[in-house]
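Sequence, please.
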């Protein structure tokens, strides 16, 4: 059976995320509501259109979150065509998103994004799974708690320790 929503997403016809649809995010994060209460949440692979961002913003008051921050990688920051490009960060102020530019590219492994992870109580996202072997060891090292949603095939991935 063909998953037509994934095909539509590939063609840009869907407003939903590629892997993390609203029903999946809602179902999974709702299971962790008690554990998320009062936390500072950091979604380090997400912008405000992310289903994670929307879910946390919608439940911000109900969860009594101490903070909600997002950051997103900007691939243009490594090109000659846009040398001033940088990653983005957003913070939820209870009424909307406050946007700022990062100094670096916004990659989860950048110094400033690892600092955000260390300041948060929980890092929650659907990371790029081609980079899962780099992502998980860094988050385990820098974040207090990590909540990652993804494809069940990811349990087979070999996660390597990064030296450095």
């Amino acid at each position: 059976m063909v998953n037509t929503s994934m095909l539509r997403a590939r063609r840009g016809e869907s407003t939903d995320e590629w892997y993390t649809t609203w029903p999946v995010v809602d179902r999974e994060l709702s299971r962790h509501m008690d554990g998320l209460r009062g936390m500072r949440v950091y979604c380090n692979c997400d912008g405000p259109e992310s289903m994670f961002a929307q879910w946390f913003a919608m439940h911000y008051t109900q969860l009594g979150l101490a903070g909600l921050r997002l950051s997103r990688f900007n691939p243009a920051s490594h090109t000659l065509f846009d040398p001033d490009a940088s990653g983005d960060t957003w913070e939820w102020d209870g009424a909307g998103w406050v946007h700022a530019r990062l100094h670096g590219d916004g990659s989860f492994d950048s110094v400033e994004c690892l600092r955000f992870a260390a300041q948060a109580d929980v890092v929650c996202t659907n990371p790029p799974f081609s980079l899962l072997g780099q992502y998980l060891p860094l988050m385990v090292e820098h974040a207090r708690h990590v909540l990652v949603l993804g494809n069940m095939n990811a349990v087979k991935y070999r996660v390597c320790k990064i030296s450095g």
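Residues 40 and 58 are 15 Å apart (CA to CA).
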